[in-house]
């Protein structure tokens, strides 16, 4: 009897050991959790404390815009390696009253006093990724106040109170931040104030350590009381000006004082009955629309998900869109960008003819005259039907490494993304916005909101947007499954910074694709490998207009949370 029980126990142990950890009662085997559903409000962010800040604001009578600002401010506290008030912001807002989408470009411009000749004098062919040279005006704070002025309900001191409290009292450092933090401190520790702010005990905080940033708490308090002018014209601006002069930088009080955000019209294409909305350049959002137009010409009901044909077609479409991205995308105040033509169906039909059976080793940008970080993304929806798609970043981890005296945050290095060659759309010029990688997205169907979503991760973002949409529209996945599905990346395309495509590049695949697929891709001329991270991070809220229910999804690769009430 005992021997039989022991054998039974060993069999059970073997089954539980061998069974995949993600076994679920229903749905895709790679799904890590169920979709979160709620009727009154939803917040999906890359950190639980940010999600809870948003939910607190919603429960207290604030709307989605108020809650999104609260979550973003909290993100700058708890995930300083990827975002903060030293960076830029873009947002798409669905306003339930007007039943219309509004786009906000809250990206900053280059310093007036820094010229292309200065880079030439220093012998540079590319702008460095750290130090004072890649610093452009931070647009985040102005973005908050523009959103709040147009749509907000809750007073800004209340909205920012959650972030202020956690910056002052501290929070436990989570897994992803703890992974990146030591390398960032090692890299930037040579710069002023970095160790004092981010390694106050002498070393980077470890997983579970309680980290406090009282200087950032004071800065946020000044903003809460003094508004955006406290940052762009008041004591914060003066501190940044003095610091940048001391370290040999060019960003000045005048650059900050003259900063403005811009309300822009989102642009769209229809993909199999769904209107997909992105923001126009200087961001890279329309690359996703170009890819969707190219891919719409293929019947994916006959092309299995994860097959070589699926991945090959996807990557070749990406190569074509990214050539146009490298040539055309830039600040529209300085360059003529044929957005309407680039995202047109006839242009896609002509470009689609270039996709063959083998991996392309060279493609050129098209003629549309025919008839690539570290980032946070969050999305919030409220009881009134308002939805916000918001993305915010320092560009690379911890930005430029420039930490102004006593302010508790890092200035971004977004200026690294200019081209130092003359005569290009994205060539460096004073008071010009650089090419931007960060892109929020939105989907409507029949004039009603369908989904607010985004995928973090530098140049990967357009690919991530397209993969999410294909997973849902072509392959029938729910929002959580669409984000959990193994992802496809490709590196080696031409870039707006001047690099040119010289071969087929390399596809990198997450675990989950069969070797048969990889073998077939190699036979088609692709190089295939694996990447450690680099596949972005994702949040989404889908709206069920029939039942009036929000469906929230969050990124399984990071430490986020989707929550509703």
Salient structural properties:
alpha+beta; Glutamine Phosphoribosylpyrophosphate, subunit 1, domain 1; globular
Question: Helices, strands, pairings?
Answer:
Elements: H1 2-18, E1 36-38, E2 42-45, H2 48-59, H3 64-78, E3 88-95, E4 100-106, H4 116-121, H5 140-151, H6 156-169, E5 171-172, H7 175-188, H8 194-198, E6 210-211, H9 214-226, H10 228-232, H11 235-246, H12 253-257, E7 262-264, E8 267-271, E9 274-278, H13 286-295, H14 308-328, H15 339-342, H16 345-352, E10 374-381, E11 387-395, E12 441-445, E13 448-455, H17 461-474, H18 479-484, E14 488-491, E15 506-509, H19 515-523, E16 527-529, E17 538-544, E18 549-554, E19 561-564
Structure description:
One of its GO terms (molecular function) is glutathione hydrolase activity. This enzyme consists of two polypeptide chains, which are synthesized in precursor form from a single polypeptide. The structure is a single chain. This protein has 565 residues and is of the alpha+beta class. It folds into two domains: 51-86 and 99-261 and 398-417, no CATH class; 264-374 and 438-564, Glutamine Phosphoribosylpyrophosphate, subunit 1, domain 1 (4-Layer Sandwich). It contains 19 helices and 19 strands. A seven-stranded antiparallel β-sheet has the order 1-18-17-13-12-9-8. It is globular. The termini are far apart. Mean pLDDT is 93; it is low at 1-21.
Quaternary structure classification: single chain
Tell me what the CATH architecture of the largest domain is: 4-Layer Sandwich
- Let me know the average pLDDT: 93
Extract low-pLDDT stretches: 1-21
**What is the CATH homologous superfamily assignment of the largest domain?**
Gamma-glutamyltranspeptidase, small (S) subunit
Strand content: 15-25%
The tally of structural domains comes to: 2
Structural class: alpha+beta
* Gyration radius, in Å: 23 Å
**Total of helices:** 19
- Count of β-strands: 19
Tertiary shape: globular
Q: Reading side by side through the largest sheet, how are the strands ordered? A: 1-18-17-13-12-9-8
CATH first level of the largest domain: which class? Answer: Alpha Beta
